[in-house]
Amino acid sequence: MDRSTDPGAAPLTLLHDHLDGGLRPATVIELAAHAGVPLPAGITTAGALADWFVVRPGESLAEVFARFDLPIRVMQTTEALSRVAREAAEDVAADGVRSVEFRFAPTHHTAGGLSLDAVVEAVLAGLAGAPPEARVLLCSMRGERRTDEVVDLAGRWHGRGVVGVDLAGVEVGEPVGPHRSAFARARSMGLGVTLHAGEMVGAESVADAIVDDVPVRIGHGFRIVEDCRVRDGEIVDLGPTAAAVLDRRLPLEVCLTSNAALGTPVERHPFLALARAGFAVTINTDNRTLTPCSLTSELALARRLGATDDELATMRSTAAGARFPDP
Ligand SMILES: [Zn+2]
Q: Which UniProt keywords apply (predicted)?
């Protein structure tokens, strides 16, 4: 289904992929042995670990987020960070991706004594010369209050591979408010800004994210459909938040398999209704190890769910056009 040989199709572009959610299980085992980090009880092979990583339907958010603990514990040295970044680039390149923005939270990788700058430098070193055009987004976590620090860090590496910042972590009970001025500052510095919103919480979370026009893209964002009137699978009217997202053409970084793992079955996912109503829908992976997928498998899934060739081509060109510029 990859139309990369089709001269009319935009090169495959991946906008939303977490470095710590996409490690090769075999690499986790090697890095864990080297760092003295224990594997989950009873796990000895890469196959068993791959299975352990997979998020099952019905798991709580706490259980899902706990899956990131092991990858993060083994990503605490420059060597480990560079290796994980290099392998992620190799893996998405093997899938046919030509341009990718990887994201991660630098504050999660200082437990071994690295500075925030050393963490970013190690990831960029791993991506240097990578086959796909690889850029980096730095995540600030909703539960932390370090967004100013992350924005300053991104500013120092802007133009050297870092192109933007993100707000990640549990949406529930953690509004954008305390982070807003830092993200506004990021925009004034020329950094791209994408905020996870409308994934775990409904349209009100998207409304919270776009006050004063801060985001340039929205991570997931599909629950904006809760601010739309839908009849027979078609969006027929928009509430104020949905209208604001549509008017601003804010790209939505949809991740079908990941969204399904958090409770929105793919058959009920509104991505196609949103695309047909004119929203700037893009297709992404989120966490390739925790919710096993690739960009081409997600595009194939979108096709199985009814997207036509033309609609898929539009999603691809929307993604290519929504990349954050590297100054
Ligand atoms: Zn994400």
A: Hydrolase, Metal-binding, Zinc
